[in-house]
C-alpha cells in the first residue's frame, strides 16, 4: 500500500447554525482528508505549520487522540494558528470567514523526501496565490501528485503552474465555474492529466482522452462541510492499494479509476450525514 503525504493548513472550524455556535473541530481541507485517511488505516503523513498558541495546542491534542503521525507538524513561535467561522446556510451550503496566517516558506521547508510509490496531496484555497511559489518549487516530482485547488472564489496566479505539475486534478463544479471553463475546455487545456470534477448529482472524469460520467444517488445532507475533502480521502484510499507510481499512473484502467471515484462518493456522502468533518474510524 502506498504512503500518502499531504500538505496543508490546520484550521479550527467553529460552526454556526442560525448564528449560534454549534460545535468546533480541527479542520482544513487537506487536514480533513488526512484524518479520514488515517482513520481508514492508510499510512498518512500530514505536513503543516501551526502556531505555538492555544489553538495550536488544540490541534496537537487532537492529532494525539487520533493517533496521527506528528513528525511533519511544525510548531512556530510567534505565528497565529488559523481559525475559520463556518456559517451553515438553509440550503445546507456553508459560508466561511478566515483568521490567522499561512506560513508559505515554513511549509516549503517542512516538505520531506518521498518515494516514487508515495502519493502527495496538495492544494486548498491558498495554493493558487503567488505566495505559494516557493512551496510549489519544493514539491518533488517523485511521487504521484494529486491537486485539489478548492478555489472558493477567483483563480489565483499559481493555479495553472500547480496543474502543470500534478498527475491528477480534482475540482468541484464550483471550482470549474470559477475557471469559467466547461469540462471539455478544461480537458483540452490539461489533456495530459487525469481530471475529476465532482458535483451533487454526478462525477465527470477524463482518462486517456475519453470523458466519462458517474451518476450519484441523492441524499438529504445534514451538513456539507468536508464533503469534497472526504471524496479525496476515499479516492486516495483506493488509489493507495493499486501499487501504482508516478511513472505508471497513466496506465490506471477505467474500472480502477471508477472504483476510486465510487469509494470517494461513499466517503463524501457519509460525512454529509453528520456534523463531523471526517469518516468514522475503520470506515470501509
From TrEMBL:
Source species, domain of life: Eukaryota
Mind telling me which InterPro entries this protein's record contains?
PfkB_Carbo_kinase (IPR050306), PfkB_dom (IPR011611), Ribokinase-like (IPR029056)
Designated name of the protein: Fructokinase
Family membership noted in the UniProt record:
Belongs to the carbohydrate kinase PfkB family.
Could you list the residue ranges that cross the membrane? none
**Any idea where the Carbohydrate kinase PfkB domain is?**
23-272
Q: Which PANTHER family match?
A: CARBOHYDRATE KINASE PFKB DOMAIN-CONTAINING PROTEIN, HEXOKINASE FAMILY MEMBER
Amino acid at each position: 500500500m502506498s504512503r500518502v503525504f499531504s500538505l496543508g493548513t490546520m484550521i479550527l472550524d467553529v460552526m454556526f447554525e442560525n448564528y449560534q455556535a454549534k460545535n468546533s473541530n480541527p479542520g482544513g481541507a487537506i487536514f480533513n482528508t488526512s484524518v479520514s485517511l488515517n482513520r481508514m488505516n492508510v499510512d498518512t503523513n500530514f505536513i503543516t505549520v501551526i502556531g505555538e498558541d492555544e489553538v495550536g495546542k488544540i490541534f496537537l491534542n487532537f492529532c494525539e487522540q487520533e493517533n496521527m503521525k506528528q513528525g511533519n507538524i511544525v510548531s512556530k513561535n510567534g505565528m497565529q494558528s488559523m481559525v475559520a467561522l463556518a456559517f451553515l446556510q438553509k440550503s445546507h451550503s456553508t459560508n466561511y470567514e478566515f483568521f490567522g496566517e499561512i506560513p508559505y516558506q515554513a511549509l516549503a521547508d517542512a516538505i520531506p523526501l518521498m518515494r516514487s510509490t508515495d502519493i502527495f496531496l496538495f492544494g486548498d484555497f491558498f495554493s493558487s496565490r503567488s505566495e505559494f511559489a516557493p512551496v510549489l518549487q519544493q514539491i518533488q516530482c517523485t511521487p504521484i501528485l494529486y491537486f485539489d485547488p478548492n478555489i472558493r472564489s477567483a483563480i489565483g496566479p499559481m493555479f495553472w503552474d500547480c496543474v502543470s505539475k500534478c498527475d491528477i486534478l480534482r475540482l468541484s463544479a464550483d471550482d470549474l465555474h470559477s475557471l469559467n471553463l466547461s469540462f471539455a475546455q478544461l480537458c483540452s487545456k490539461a489533456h495530459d492529466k487525469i481530471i475529476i470534477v465532482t458535483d451533487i448529482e454526478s462525477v465527470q472524469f477524463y482518462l486517456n482522452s475519453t470523458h466519462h460520467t458517474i451518476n450519484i444517488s441523492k441524499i438529504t445532507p445534514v451538513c456539507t462541510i468536508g464533503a469534497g475533502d472526504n471524496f479525496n480521502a476515499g479516492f486516495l484510499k483506493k488509489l493507495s492499494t493499486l501499487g501504482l507510481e508516478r511513472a505508471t499512473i497513466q496506465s490506471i484502467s477505467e474500472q480502477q479509476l471508477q472504483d476510486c471515484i465510487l469509494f470517494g462518493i461513499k466517503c463524501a456522502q457519509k460525512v454529509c450525514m453528520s456534523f463531523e468533518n471526517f469518516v468514522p474510524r475503520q470506515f470501509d
